[in-house]
Specification:
The complex is a heterodimer of chains A (about 260) and B (about 425). Chain A is an alpha/beta fold and about 260 residues long. Chain A folds into two domains: about 5-220, HUPs (Rossmann fold, 3-Layer(aba) Sandwich), CATH 3.40.50; about 230-260, no CATH class. Chain A has helices at about 35-50, 70, 75-80, 95-110, 130-140, 190-200, 215-220, 245-255; strands spanning about 5-10, 10-15, 20, 25, 30-35, 55-65, 85-90, 115-120, 145-155, 155-160, 165-170, 175-180, 205. Chain A is globular and about 70 Å long. Chain A starts with a strand and ends in a 5-residue tail after the last helix. Chain B is α/β, with parallel strands linked by helices and about 425 residues long. Chain B folds into three domains: about 1-65 and about 105-170 and about 290-355, 3-Layer(bba) Sandwich (FAD/NAD(P)-binding domain); about 175-280, 2-Layer Sandwich (D-Amino Acid Oxidase, Chain A, domain 2), CATH 3.30.9; about 370-425. Helix content of chain B is about 35%, strand content about 25%. Chain B has 16 helices and 19 strands. In chain B, strands 1, 2, 7, 8, 9, 10, 16 and 17 form an eight-stranded mixed sheet that branches. Chain B has a seven-stranded mixed sheet with strand order 5-4-12-13-14-11-15, with helices on both faces. A two-stranded antiparallel ribbon of chain B has the order 3-6. Chain B starts with a strand and ends with a helix. Classes of the chains: A alpha/beta (about 260), B alpha/beta (about 425).
Chain lengths: ~260, ~425
């Protein structure tokens, strides 16, 4: 058999490189990359494709901002996705999860044939964890969240699902939506050869109009009122004395703060 | 084996400049950069002298993400208990076509990578080249992980340590005598504060060098460059001197001590440290420039030892960009002639010899050995400051005539066997 998987991929700023200034993230000159859990989803998709002995993995993304998405999505192609599709438009800058789900659902319909839609359970930056579920609802598909294991047969998809104190095994008919957690696999690092090939793989670009969506439908339903880094008070305690005294005083201070000995 | 026209090892200014030139001419170019992005592993003091390279890629510089055009040069000579600062401002430093700009590499290199990408170069970050592939002495490509990629010419611009090039015997192993280590902090300050502290008009920049007590007598000095919203403050210390120092390995604490000096504290007051970085610097001058080309390869930038510390001017990035440019031109000519052997690439060294790169390094041939003289970092800054201190001092005793005061100081500190020997040596500067 063959299995066609669409992996919905969010690109986000490289969080490791972001500094906080005046409690706000400094995004200037920060490169974008494919989100962490989306890499797990891509890896899972490729493993399913390869296990089935055929099929297509399509990386689908919505450009929610000015993020050189065409370059960034190549990372998914370099990992081993067969094709990529991008929905981009200035109207999508600052899009909220509802709008992103609308755009993704419309693009999935446009792609047409697929067995499985894979998502990360949440994005690396905002982590609303909404988009997978929303897309499933919009398309009227069954959905399984937090999958840590996926297998596909002609009967449908089977997933192990991580819960706090148990593991659920669920099955659903195809096509279905599955969101994955990081423990599902170790995403591969693209080899140079695959990076070279990525540039030659098919890459489709759509505007919302191409998908029959009007800009009003994509207008954010919610407004971000404030987005501030947590403020941490520095204690500014200087321990003096011999090294042993300093160590004792330091450990005592940690005990008093409840950091140690809980 | 997959093959491209040209592989560039290293996404710094030399490599990217070469890639930009090659891709502009339509060649299939791949830049392999080990860091997370171009510039991630690169450090400058930093100032880029644009005057020497303005005519190479003239379309680029108008939109480059420079920080500030340097309008004022400051030099502080630090002795114990006294220091002297010169401030030099000239209209032409930062007029309509400024001669130099302060820069931050993360921004500058990413921008140049983008420009090379727009021309069609493929810039691949997070990709470490493990080996240069050779066949009968000729460099025929690279190996990265399990992948081998062939190229007609490999531009080796891997940085100052040149591990691949020295590993393959294309240049000598880096010697500590020819290298220094630079370490710096980027300290954020409001633009208006920067402009007040260095007497600048809005948008203008300053370069400020420090000689003397900052390195505790070791070869080197301090530097400070004003960026748009930050300053780059750091030290450069010779590796050989650092190794002999009993406190060796503690060079980072020198920077803390530097910041705490009474001359520096008010300059950095109120600032927030945003970044810390360090890098090796080639300071051996032309004597350590290796053979620049061979069958199937050229060396560019720091890998080729193209940098110059001339005490009051410190250069490397302009050499890197120019060497990348000339490397690209030479590779294009070689490809056109269908001869990428050493003979076909010989034009690279010829054009560098005709350009400022090797000419300036040749002119400065004796500088690396002259600046090894520790008196430059101990005696002279102290002596200059002591002399001027005496001129400005009014004590309880009746004062001497100014000329007499000056003469006494000059005779004591500048006219003795050691300093006369230094003067004789310095005629070669």
């Amino acid at each position: 058999m063959s299995v066609d998987v669409i992996v919905c991929v969010k690109t986000n700023p490289d969080l490791q490189m972001i500094r906080i200034k005046d409690r706000q993230p400094v995004l200037e000159a920060i490169p974008y990359k494919v989100g962490d859990l989306e890499k797990n989803a891509l890896e899972a998709a490729m493993q399913l494709r390869d296990a089935a002995g055929g099929g297509t993995v399509t990386a689908l993304t919505v450009a929610e901002g000015d993020r050189k998405v065409k370059e960034t999505i190549k990372e998914a192609l370099a990992m081993g996705a067969d094709e990529a599709a991008i929905v981009s438009d200035p109207a999508l800058v600052g899009a909220d999860p509802a709008a992103v789900a609308q755009a993704l659902a419309a693009a999935v319909k446009k792609i047409g044939t697929y067995d499985l839609l894979l998502f990360g359970e949440g994005s690396t930056d905002n982590y609303t964890g909404q988009v997978g579920a929303r897309v499933a609802e919009l398309l009227g598909l069954p959905q399984i969240g937090y999958a840590r294991k996926i297998s596909v047969t002609t009967d449908g998809v089977q997933c192990e699902r991580s819960m706090d104190d148990m593991i659920e095994t669920l099955a659903a008919p195809l096509p279905a939506v599955v969101t994955v957690v990081s423990e599902i696999n170790e995403p591969r690092i693209p080899s140079l050869m695959n990076i070279m090939k990525a540039g030659k793989k098919p890459l489709q670009e759509w505007t919302p109009a191409d998908l029959g969506l009007d800009a009003a439908a994509l207008a954010p339903q919610r407004q971000i009122v404030s987005n501030l880094a947590e403020e941490q008070d520095r204690k500014h305690i200087l321990f003096e004395g011999t090294a042993a005294e300093q160590a004792d005083a330091f450990v005592n201070a940690l005990l008093n703060e409840g950091v140690l000995g809980r | 084996m997959e093959k491209v026209d040209c592989i560039v090892v290293g996404g710094g200014l030399a490599g990217l400049s070469a890639a930009y030139g090659l891709a502009s001419a339509g060649l299939e170019v791949m830049v392999l950069e080990r860091g997370d992005y171009a510039g991630a592993k690169n450090v400058t003091g930093g100032r880029l002298y644009v005057s020497p390279i303005r005519e190479l890629y003239p379309e680029l510089w108008a939109e480059a993400p420079f920080e500030r055009a340097v309008a004022r040069e400051w030099i502080t000579m630090m002795g114990d208990g006294a220091h002297t600062t010169f401030e030099v401002a000239a209209d032409r430093f930062a007029g309509e076509t400024p001669q130099s700009y302060t820069v931050l590499r993360a921004r500058l290199d990413q921008w140049l990578a983008e420009k090379a990408g727009e021309k069609g170069a493929m810039v691949v970050p997070k990709m470490k080249v493990d080996e240069l592939l050779r066949r009968e002495g000729r460099v025929i490509g690279i190996r990265a992980g399990d992948d081998e990629i062939g190229a007609d010419v490999t531009v080796i611009a891997e940085g100052v340590l040149g591990l691949l090039a020295s590993g393959a015997g294309l240049r000598a192993e880096p010697a500590e005598r020819d290298h220094a280590v630079g370490f710096k902090e980027v300290i954020e300050l409001p633009p208006a504060t920067i402009e007040d502290r260095w007497h600048l008009n809005p948008g203008e920049g300053a370069a400020h060098l420090f000689m003397g007590a900052v390195t505790k007598g070791m070869l080197g000095g301090g530097f400070l460059y004003t960026n748009k919203e930050s300053i780059s403050l750091g030290l450069v210390v010779g590796m050989a001197a650092l190794k002999q120092d009993p406190d060796q390995g503690k060079c980072f604490s020198l920077l803390d001590e530097f910041k705490e000096m009474p001359q520096i504290r008010p300059l950095v007051a109120g600032g927030t440290v945003a970044e810390y970085s360090a890098h090796a610097i080639a300071e051996g001058g032309i004597a350590q420039v290796p053979r620049l080309y061979g069958d199937g390869y050229v060396l560019a930038g720091d890998t080729a030892g193209l940098s110059l510390n001339a005490l009051v001017t410190v250069r490397g990035m302009d050499f890197a960009i120019a060497s990348g440019y000339h490397a690209a031109q030479a590779v294009l000519a070689a490809k056109k002639a269908g001869d990428c052997s050493a003979a076909g690439l010989a034009g690279y060294e010829q054009s560098l010899r005709q350009s400022f790169v090797l000419k300036d390094l040749e002119t400065a041939r004796h500088i690396p050995r002259i600046i090894e003289n520790p008196r430059l970092f101990t005696h002279y800054p102290q002596a200059v400051s002591r002399l001027l201190e005496s001129v400005f001092t009014i004590g309880p005793q009746p004062s001497r005539r100014l000329v007499k005061t000056l003469w006494r100081g000059v005779r004591k500190d500048f006219l003795n066997v050691a300093t006369l020997k230094d003067a004789w040596q310095m005629r070669k500067l």
